[in-house]
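Q&A log
Question type: sequence-to-structure
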Amino acid sequence: MVERIGTCRVLGEIGSGGMAVVYEAIQEPLNRRVAIKALKPSIAIDSQFAERFEREANFMASLQHENILHVIDFLKDGRSMFIIMEYVDGIDLYDLLERSPRLPPDIAAIITLQLARGLDYAHFRGIIHRDIKPANIMVSMQGDVKLMDFGIARHERFGDLTETGTGLGTPSYMSPEQILGDKLDFRSDIFSVGIVLYQMLTGRKPFVEDESRTVMQKIRLDRYEPFKKLGVEVPRKLERIMARCLQKMPANRYPTTQALIDDLTEFLAPRVPMNHSARLVMFLHEIGVMTGEQTDEVLSAVAPRVLRASRRNGGFLWEIAKKQAWVLLALLASGLTVQAASGRWSGPAVGGGPGFVNPANAGYLKVSADPWAHVHVDGERVLTTPAARAIPLKPGRHYVKYINPYFVPIEHEVLIEAGNTVHDRATLTEEITTGEGSSSP
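Response status: OK
Response body:
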């Protein structure tokens, strides 16, 4: 392993592919961590692979967006090439799906939304990624989603490095026109986004090779398995978004990447009443990617910022921000108490509850709701999900009601025993009918 690259001290190898190796390093003049993508020594410096490697550096350097991995520098050293990039502390979507094969709909939608924002920026500048797949999508410990690896990207103003009629990419995530080797536009990336969204929601790819057809034939000719047939419940609005992305004919997909962003934003608005990055951080904590200490460090910085920014806007936004901040702080409170200057926290004090309960004789209730809900116990509102704290209750029967203003309420009966903790979960699936008609997920 090399020890130095330019002004960077190499710490170790963190990944390897067919064309390049990725190292973690310290850029010593600025004392910051960076990632260095190095062309493998076996690749000739004058080959098409090297030309593609250099083009990737140029493309990524021209794209300064929060959802695209930033390029810091590009070096040529003898017969080697190096792309110096920002270091992202996180997990790529491929490994995330190994840990949690099916993601909650709101998490899948947040990741897709951030991915679409990065793509929209690239598409506006004439760049088509052509290799959207989980391994090229990074979820950081700060709750950001970063699109990586523009190695086979194409710019409208430049020629292609592949021959006409040749498909280039990862077969399982290709669009029909990419498989055929047709000329591509941004809608090819949208099809690949649909495949990734389907995989996040179901735990499997929509097109899988079998004895009768290859994966490429299935992408061109077959329809994906419906969610109901797989026994997977997905809100209809999100299902419609995915279905539009996966239309075989490009003309039937979203007319712009911004249109996809608009639909995802509309879907998430009633379901995630908090900062999207904070919700991702909470999920990473739930599945064990982040420790409690790491989560506390991130969210303790987020909550005050949410309050300050929204207070400047006043009125309605300020009230929403306070609710968001309390949700974040509830996770930090280790399940017991929340200290708040405003004194507006609605949860019960330790040993309180609905009705006073002696902690020595108490049982405990933990709740979760998809997408989220105000939780009432025996008619008294005690908290808003997501929350890590356990609710102390007297032993016996209690009635738990989950209320989200956009869904029909759900009520459960729970039996609490002294010294034990009961976990109760609710999935709110039936949307409240509005004057314009009903919409059921």
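Response note: Residues 273-336 form one domain.
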